[in-house]
C-alpha cells in the first residue's frame, strides 16, 4: 500500500524545520505526486502562521509550481486550522480561505480562543478533565459538536488526528464528516485515528487520508505507521483518498 500524496506537512512558517521547497524536494524523492503545505492556523500563539506570511507562502508555492511543473509533482497550499470555540469557529477567515487550496482542521493546545467562556471550556477544562471521570461525557459531547459545527460552517477537507489531544465521538463525527465530504485522518505521527477508532469510523461511509504530519522534510511521505493501522483495521482501498490504486 502506497500513498500518492502527503497532505499534511509543516514548514518553517509554523514550527517545521524545512522550507516549502525542502518539503517539495522530499516529496519528490519519496516518489509522491502531490504534497500539501499545511502549517498551523494563526491563532496558535506559539507556532501559528503569521497572517502576513500567507500571501508570501502563496507566491512561493506559485513560483515552485512553475519551477517543478515538469517534475511531476503537484504542490498545494493549505492550513491546519484550529478550532477556537464550541460554536465551531475556526481561525481561518474568508480572506485566508481564498488563498488556500486545502483546509485541514484539528484540535491543539496553545490556541487563543474566541471568547473567555470558550477559553475556559476548550483549552483549560479539556486538558484538566482528561483523566477525570467527572465532566468527561459532557466535554466529549461539546468537543464533538464543536467539530460538527465547524464542518457545517467551513469547507473542511480533512480533520487531522481526530481523537488525539481531545476525545471525540468518532462515530458521530464520521457520520457528519461523510455528509460534508470531509475525510478523517489516519495520522502517522499521532496515535489517532487508532485501529479501534478506524473500525468505528468504518461503520459510517466517511473516507480517510493517511498523512505524515511531517515537521521536518525527511519525514515527508513517512506514513508507514498510518498504513499499518489502516491494514490492521481492514480499510478498503476505495475509502482512502490518497492511496495509490493499481
Ligand atoms: Zn495537528
Ligand atoms: Zn500538523
From TrEMBL:
Which residues does UniProt assign to the signal peptide?
none
How is this protein named in the record? Answer: PHP domain-containing protein
Specify the species. Tissierella simiarum
Q: Give a single Pfam family match.
A: PHP
Keyword annotations? Coiled coil
Q: Which residue ranges does the record assign to the Polymerase/histidinol phosphatase N-terminal domain? A: 5-85
Note the superkingdom of the native organism.
Bacteria
Q: Which residues form a coiled coil?
A: 47-74
Q: Which InterPro entries match?
A: PHP_dom, PHP_phosphatase, Pol/His_phosphatase_N
- Reply yes or no: does the keyword Coiled coil apply: yes
Alphabetized SMART domains for the sequence: POLIIIAc
